[in-house]
Amino acid sequence: MNRLKTQLGSLELQSPLMTASGTFGQDGSALQFLSQRELGAIVLKTVTPQPRHGNPPPRLFETPSGLLNSIGLENQGVEAFLNEVVPELGSEGIPIVANVGGESVDEFCQMVEAFGDLDCFQALELNLSCPNVGGGRLPFSTCEKAVHEVLDACRSLTKKPLWAKLSPNVTRIAPMAIAAEKAGADALTVGNTVLGLAVNWRTRKPELGVGYGGFSGPAIRPIAMRMVWETSQAVDIPVIGCGGISSAEDVLSFLVAGASSVQLGTAFFRNPSLFGEVSRQLTLLLEQEGASVSELSRSLEWPSSCS
To answer: Is residue 67 part of a domain?
Structure first.
């Protein structure tokens, strides 16, 4: 019995563990550090229509409770990706999810058209929520109409599962989730980094080259978990939890809160063997409880309201 098996719409994963986009590279080469059995799927780094050089340095700043980054979606663009990376994909043995970005609805459509018929990808994740471009404006994840417009335009262009990666930088995430579901999203990734700022008081300047950055790591876990719970209560499609996860206990908590699977990112930088450790501990804990991932998902019992 595989207690780790989970279902994301039409896509069955042998484990709820996935890489978070931007933390595992743009191809499967990082799998040399892992066993294929330790992952349910690989989510690749965001690809955009045109090459992006990324933001000026410094791009990373470590804090006591997490990592502030301002990479800026650096990538070689879709043409180079199709010519140089795609031919090397397909031998990983586990599902691969492409993550695509754009600065307009047309650009998102262009990316979905480019990847929609490629056999090497089992799903496409639309990055609506990167805070490290456009000064953190997040035009496609802070407005219900914009979320719906992107998903609706992309839905007719591919039969592959479409995942919408939503932002935690909103007052309420449920309206965004509902808009994505109504427009045809097959799953929702909740969420991305939290917009943050670090300042060097001696130089009177920000620690990052563009000022703001995306904050990830243990400190944002309660924020991400709250948003997973709120999203799972608002939609029927699967929710993918992402934010501050670094242990099997974290994974199980996200599942109970409403996730069907999870993505790990920042914690992998500190511990390259993390996926194997978490996978083994997950199996042990589930065996001890006589439970499975599918049984735990969305099982949170909310406290009764005080009268």
So the answer is: no
DSSP-assigned beta bridge partners for residue 126: 100, 164
Instruction: Answer yes or no: 130 catalytic.
Output: yes
Q: Is residue 206 part of a domain?
A: no
The Cα–Cα gap between 28 and 123 comes to: 15
Q: Is 246 exposed, middle or buried (0-12, 13-18, 19+ CB in 10 A)?
A: buried
Q: Give CA–CA dist 231/243, Å, rounded.
A: 14
Residue 178 lies in a domain: yes
The span from the CA of 193 to the CA of 217, in Å, is 9
Domain limits at 163?
Answer: 6-61+73-193+217-296
| Within a domain: 97 | yes
**Candidates 109, 120, 130, 306; catalytic one:** 130
The number of domains in the chain is 1
Per-residue pLDDT of the chain (307 residues; tens, 9 = 90+): 899 999 999 999 999 999 999 898 877 677 776 777 889 999 999 999 999 999 999 999 999 999 999 999 999 999 999 999 999 887 778 899 999 999 999 999 999 999 999 999 999 999 998 765 665 566 787 899 999 999 999 999 999 999 999 999 999 999 999 999 999 999 999 989 999 999 999 999 999 999 999 999 999 999 999 999 999 999 999 999 999 999 999 999 999 999 999 999 999 888 988 999 999 999 999 999 999 999 999 999 999 875 4
Q: For residue 10, what is the domain's CATH number?
A: 3.20.20.70
